[in-house]
Amino acid sequence: MRKAKIKLTLQDDVVFSERAASQGAHACLEYVPGAALLGWTASRLYAQLSPADAWLVFHSGKVRFGDGFPLAGNGLQALPIPLCWHHEKESDWRQGGRILDGNVLNVCHDQADANKQLKQLRDGFVTEDGLLHSSAKSLTMKTAINPLTGRAAQAQLFGYEALQAGQVFTALLCADNDVSEDLFTQVKQACSGLMHLGRSRSAQYGRVLGEISEARQAVTETQIATRDVLFWLLSDMALERHGQPVMKPETMDMGLPDGDLITSKSFVRSRRYAPYNGKRRAPDLERQVISAGSILYFKMNEPVDTASLPFSYGLFRESGLGTVMINPPLLSSERPVFCVRVDVKKSIEVKRPSHPLVQWLLAQGNMSGASQEIRRHADILFEELANLYASASSSAARSVGPGKSQWGRVRELAMQKDSPQDLSDKLFGSSGVCKEKNNEDWTSMGQKKNGDFISFRDWLMVISKSEPEQDLPQILSLLAQQATKFVAQQQELT
């Protein structure tokens, strides 16, 4: 089986609705659904592939676009809270947003004391070291515009709840062995770069940056022969039997031999929704699914080798549905104990040898560290620049802002190592690259995060005056390099 990991960085707020209905309160999913990644890839590849390859990638279930789960503050992937976890009411079961070892009860393995009241953990995500995580959301109110009057339409106020920009999610892209390497490479390339996902993509929502890397399983599974088989649902699961949805699975639904579902140790929640199909511009058939985080506990008549079991079940697996973990270590004990966090020990002070070679190596290390710091600072400045482009484009009928050739000229000047005054004259003088008169691209206005409007020229001038003189050429060069790539990507999309 081939696997790849897709890192998804939200450039804008992104809307993934829990349901496609236009009435009632709108709620946004806390993850990036695999169906959104599948839809984007289909829009890029479907017409280019042969009918057989298109069916193999997008309909057969042999290529699976997994849900994108959030990366928590500790850098680990967060997974849906297992519904078998409970904590005692009024107890100190967490501290600093982290679950304390031994303070959560796994009801799959132990029944609670009848004299104590328990509360189920239901919402959010958890990492393998016990850190709790919830995706940040924003709510924006909007109104439809009457095309006849150009004013707000009556009784058409609505709101979008969205995942906030800046968050990072990771999704798993899998393909069976009978999918060729070349075909899988095309799929990975389609998921790399700037994507537009979710609702209202033509407005201010939807830009997501995808980066492909080698897959690494976030939480290992215990795979041994056992009569106790526990399924932890990482995504919604759509099971069907005789054309009817299944909310109480049996062993045959999970590809298991004879055994029974132990309802007292299983925890199941469900939901129903009709996904919107962007190609047909209409909702698909309604789906009734078992929700992510549910627990299915089976007692088998004979030991089962869990290593031979698949990790996805049911329908719509190409969209990421049906992904499970089987007997994970995190759910193997009555009271979970999370992975050990390494304590940084106090370093032992070593006397530095007085040798010219040591001094030279230390100087090179300091230069490398300073260069990394400048690169990080340039990345922060580029985020501000991307916001200027986004706000300027949303308020104009055409693409605005400096183009590729203009940013290329800025980089060329920055690498000439002129004096600060000469560099400023070549950039902002009357005949400079960023001259003020008769230069609509540099003088177009964008909005900063604090709400102030500023032109691209004035923004770059502020940077040139505020940065240290010795670092300015390198900062401008790195900034112009990123800006050139960014503008090129925007032109490809339009």
What's the architecture of the domain at 2-78 and 124-214 in CATH terms?
Answer: 2-Layer Sandwich
Mean pLDDT: 83
Number of helices: 9
Low-confidence stretches: 218-222, 342-350
Please provide a written account of the structure.
This protein is of the alpha+beta class and 494 residues long. Helix 5 runs antiparallel to helix 9 (472-493). Among the domains are: 2-78 and 124-214, Alpha-Beta Plaits, CATH 3.30.70; 370-390 and 397-493, no CATH class. The radius of gyration is 27 Å and the shape is globular. It has nine helices and 28 strands. Strands 1, 2, 3, 14, 15 and 16 form a six-stranded antiparallel beta sheet that branches. It has helices spanning 34-45, 51-58, 181-190, 356-394, 404-414, 420-428, 440-443, 456-466, 472-493; strands spanning 2-10, 63-65, 69-70, 79-80, 85-88, 94-95, 98-99, 105-106, 118-120, 125-126, 132-133, 137-145, 152-163, 168-175, 193-196, 207-214, 225-233, 239-241, 244-246, 259-261, 270-273, 276-277, 282-283, 287-290, 295-305, 324-326, 445-447, 453-455.
What attributes characterize this protein structure?
494 residues, alpha+beta, Alpha-Beta Plaits, 6-stranded antiparallel beta sheet, 9 helices
